[in-house]
């Protein structure tokens, strides 16, 4: 019982630090992996700080994860069980997207945020979490389901699968170059150029990929260049605009820059506190300020 109370306070502290304000007048939604044990479900609800609150809870199954990721992520990356959870709170216009992760080992908060923009998500607070370490690929399905339920909007399967492809491609590249941050930065910069100039032809997108990689001092293989180019062709064909993407990502940048050193010191202190109390908490905070340096 004491452990559950502590985890619940940790979850609520995470919400306060990450979000720093009251939510807009919208419905918050939690998704839980269908294959979680009862105790694990309670653990995640406590982590999100929603026990006793009238917040809808949706169970996400492995079939839904495969619908989003089949043919994009490998069967091993998707898995056979639905474990990942998500907590989504819509925010007011101009807020942007802010993401934190807990026990997500492969996909970073910045990767989620960038993919969510591609999927059409706008102005939302997101936590992707699990009761133990998971890759995080399947968590995207829960986030998208929660967002649609919370806002009453519909995201097309084509858009969400393109977003999933972007997330997986970025994660793979991050592994290849041993730098997930630079991989995300490259994807974001190329995507902005593609949307800004309305590019849809591989012949015009490929030089942009090479140019941005060179600026970031990233060595790409021929396969990497082809995969990123093909992805950007798909993104260029979506109904996204440069302005919409810029607003969502810039919203995160502005809020974290405004918080300054106090934000960094407090989140570092909070992580140390959780490690001491629970011995197994790892929180990855999204900080996109360095993507625009």
Strand order of the largest sheet: 2-1-3-5-4-6
Q: What is the mean pLDDT?
A: 82
- Strand content of the residues, in percent? 5-15%
Question: Tally the helices: what do you get?
Answer: 11
Question: How does this structure look, described?
Answer:
With 293 residues, the protein is α/β, with parallel strands linked by helices. It has two domains: 2-157 and 247-292, no CATH class; 159-243. The protein has eleven helices and six strands. A six-stranded mixed β-sheet has the order 2-1-3-5-4-6. Helix 5 (109-119) links the parallel strand 4 (97-104) and strand 5. Helix 1 (2-19) crosses helix 2, helix 1 (2-19) runs antiparallel to helix 11 and helix 8 packs across helix 10. The longest helix has 37 residues, at 242-278. The termini are far apart.
List the defining traits of the structure above.
single chain; 293 residues; alpha/beta; 2 domains; six-stranded mixed β-sheet
Summarize the structure.
58% of the residues lie in helices and 13% in strands.
